[in-house]
Specification:
Layout (H helix, E strand, L loop, with lengths): L7 E6 L6 H12 L6 E6 L6 H7 L5 E4 L13 E2 L1 H6 L4 E4 L5 E4 L2 H9 L9 E5 L3 H12 L3 E6 L6 E3 L5 H6 L2 E4 L25 E4 L8 H8 L3 E3 L2 H16 L1
Parallel strand pairs: 1-2, 1-3, 4-6, 7-8, 7-10, 8-9, 10-11, 11-12
Antiparallel strand pairs: 3-5, 5-6
Helix pairs in contact: 4-5, 4-8
């Protein structure tokens, strides 16, 4: 039996023509016979344009949020889920029946679900490359998995080291390296985070939140040293399905 569900969804971000979400949900609606559902990209130059977007699209039911607005969209929302408030980043917005906007974070769920099958007893500590909105969901998931972590950024600060401090000892102590930066994504596929890849071993996991290309230079260089690698595609699928449930509950 075909379910007639007329709802409108989309993706909020900047420079998002490449995005996974529109293709994924369009295909999902076709396969699962949600004939009345649509999904579109809302590409805005700055977050202040979100107010106008809301006013001009009062029939929206839900949005995904991507770079660079996962943190800056929060002041425009009426409410946050408990997890989103704790994480400090939003990648899913539900438009309630009362016209209110509630923010959720499904990134942490997608990351956790995709990482768990790779974990072995020696995977105790992680390096998180980058400090943007996506890294916050990753950190929250690692907390839930009882994996300690430290952030890596261009400048050292509290719970954050700079790239120049990463050496052989760092790799001995941290068995999971997670790229939460956009470095290496299409079209800039020749770029990679500046870390000493020669210290990866078969005991390491290299995880890249990027999914396009499927194997970034970061993953390729880690794999060459024997590391187990994982890109962000499964994470995206898991978080998208979680968002779908939130929009329709």
């Amino acid at each position: 039996m075909i379910e007639v569900l007329k709802k409108r969804f989309g993706l909020l971000g900047r420079n998002i023509s490449y995005s996974f979400s529109k293709g994924y949900f369009t295909e999902k609606f076709s396969k699962e016979h949600f004939e009345g559902c649509t999904y579109e990209n809302f590409d805005i130059p700055e977050i202040n344009n979100f107010t106008e977007l809301k006013e001009n699209n009062t029939d929206l039911n839900g949005l995904n949020v991507t770079i660079p607005y996962k943190e800056s969209v929060i002041p425009f929302l009426d409410k946050l889920s408990k997890n989103a408030k704790q994480i400090g980043a939003v990648n899913t917005i539900k438009f309630t029946k009362k016209g209110k906007l509630k923010g959720y974070n499904t990134d942490y769920y997608g990351f956790k679900k995709s990482l768990e099958p790779l974990l072995q007893p020696h995977h105790k500590k992680a390096l998180i490359l980058g400090t943007g909105g996506a890294s916050k969901g990753v950190a929250f998931a690692l907390d839930q998995l009882d994996i300690t972590y430290i952030f890596v950024s261009r400048e050292a600060k509290e719970n954050c080291i700079d790239y120049s401090l990463i050496n052989a000892t760092t790799f001995d102590n941290y068995q999971i390296i997670i790229n939460c930066t956009p470095v290496g994504t299409t079209p800039n596929v020749d770029l990679f985070p500046l870390i000493p890849y020669e210290f990866f071993t078969e005991k390491h996991i290299a995880y890249d939140l990027i999914y396009n290309p499927a194997e970034t230079q970061f993953l390729n260089k880690a794999k060459a040293q024997g590391a187990q690698i994982k890109n962000g595609l499964d994470m995206l699928i898991f978080q998208a399905e979680k968002a779908w449930k939130i929009w329709n509950k």
